[in-house]
Amino acid sequence: VIFGPMFSGKSTELMRRVRRFQIAQYKCIVIKYAKDIRYSKEQMATHDRHTMSAVSACCLADVFTEALNCCVIGIDEGQFAFGDILNLVPLAESVVKLNAVCMICYREASYTKRLGAEKE
User: Fold this and answer.
1) How far apart are CA 65 and CA 9, in angstroms?
2) pLDDT tens per residue across span 43-54
3) Are 75 and 3 contacting, i.e. CB atoms less than 8 angstroms apart?
4) Hey, which family's this protein in (predicted)?
5) Which domain holds residue 24?
């Protein structure tokens, strides 16, 4: 489980870990939320536009059969309620909590504040 506020590098860290498994010749799948089409429909992307092939799904059941054939499953932008993500922590092999950087004082930031008025 990799969690943290917006702009903390969660997708970047997921891509780094999946690439390591790909180099080791593991069969990997990355699943992204189908409604997240900010940068691409067929790839997951970081805010600085680094991309990796991904399968889009609204529900994990949509890619269940495909995922069963893989040794490594990465899920980008899991749409969990805040309490539900904590239920994954005891089940995870590792837990990584990332911090963002405050754009005012440039210190570590555990939280971010969205200032835009966008609804999507």
Assistant:
1) 29
2) 999 888 899 999
3) no
4) Belongs to the thymidine kinase family.
5) 2-109
